[in-house]
Amino acid sequence: MQLNAVARLFYSPRLLLSTRQPGSLSSAQSCGLHATATLNDAGTATKSVPEKPKRPMNTYIRFAQSIRSSLASANPQASPTDISKLAAVKWQSLDQATKAKLEEEYKREQAVWLQKNAKYLSQLTDAQKEEIKLERQQRNEGKVKREQKRMLKELGRPKRPMNAYLRFCAQNKPAPGLSKEDNKMQMKNLGMQWKRLPEAERERYTKEAEAEMKRYQEEMKVWEDKMLASENMIAVRKKNVLLPPSPASVKAKKGGIPVVDSAPVAKPKKPTSAARP
Known about the structure:
Elements: H1 2-10, H2 22-30, H3 59-74, H4 80-92, H5 96-123, H6 126-154, H7 164-171, H8 180-196, H9 199-229, H10 247-255
């Protein structure tokens, strides 16, 4: 775990390899689809599912892409966001005939894509469909994590300090501009140096890390209290959020009656008196 943490600390270009199920590759090969799950010459992982047909751009995106380069040339100081805003203004003033022409082009390409996509889906095996589903789920989870990280940064959440080992690595980090193999070798050497480090020297890093952790915990307490006061409970750890008890549980606690089900219990109906003969 420590070596992985050092890799995240010193090597920014990450190689993300998605997990592959053993059956997905063999099943894809048996049905005649191009499928590989090994690393290519560039060091990236190839998919074990065929490439999905690319969906055509809608009318507005098609127009914006066609004028983006000219807008960028005419406005060299503009940011990509400013270019998008300028394209939106151009789109609003575009005549209906040009819009109708772009819409027809989009519909033609959309019809072709629908046919290709239907053929693509029909060729997928169950294993490949499951793999696509897992990759989509991973992308959604990654998006949620990035949004949460961005939100916490905007709210000013204190940054968690490094432990003793990572502090040692940060002060003895490898030289920049090395290859992946050289980086890997130097990080391995750092791990060996940490093991051979004298006890007194290691204790120094440990005490520094403990002091930083104490400061971090105090800052987190102040920050979380601030978030609770501003009703930003979503940013606070769950264990620090005290939810009020439900009315049913409070009533049961006072009367000493255990709560089994919160659903209302229907009262028994009174028996109707039998008609006299």
